[in-house]
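Subject: Sanity check before I submit

Could someone independently write out the structure tokens for this chain? I want to compare against mine line by line before I put it in a report. The sequence has 253 residues.
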Amino acid sequence: MKNTFKAKGYLHYKSIEVDHFSKLLLAKEFEKLEKDPFAPTHTQRFRRYGNALILPWEKDLKPIWLPTVRDNIGQELSGYDQGGNNPEHQSIRYFNALSQEAKSTQYLNDLIVDDYQLTFGLENAYLPIYVGVHFVKLRSTHADQLGISSPNCFHQDGEPFTFAHLFYRSNNIEGGENFIASPQERNKRLDEVNNYNIYQKFTLRQASESFAVHDPAVSHYVSPIRKIDQGTNAEAGERWMILIDFSLTKQKI
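---
Independent answer below. Compare away.
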């Protein structure tokens, strides 16, 4: 699978299964996600974030979770810097931090290591590998109210590798279609992209269905979700994702 990833610059695959205990605990985490403070007011996007290090020279690979910071009301936060790769946000953003309970689950820690082992070119690094972990929930409460990802265009993330894992998708939504394209389509909306430059499109529907991108090789985009009208069904439509990215760290003296 790693050879395919190297050759194509992306993967669409099934990742490791979640154990029962982790599934229950992480479902509670998703239910508690706070509104993304950087989301447009008209969209319902919820997010928490955590960051960690992996020491590539260690035999027993595991994420070493970094401490959080607190705001002036005592809320724990973790900072995320996407550099200039998100046209909607140019500087560091602080999100509500993942809970210690979520960060301690066997599944999440195993998933991070499993993802890392699919990367290439990082294993001989002499400095720690930086790991970013986003829990993102999109919600649509009616057909006219979309759940929109950020950025809402083809983009590159700025980290060498990003992995996206579906945790849950309700059966009353449409959309959430993933597109993988040439890097030259970066910062374009779907209707602006040359179709010949779209390498693959797919929709994650089953838990643990995943995709990965090697950032220099491709750009990518996910379409908004929309609730399907089901008559008297008042439940909101939702899509829950775990996003994991890996970057080299730098030494500053």
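---
OP: Matches mine. For the report I'm noting this point. The radius of gyration is 18 Å.
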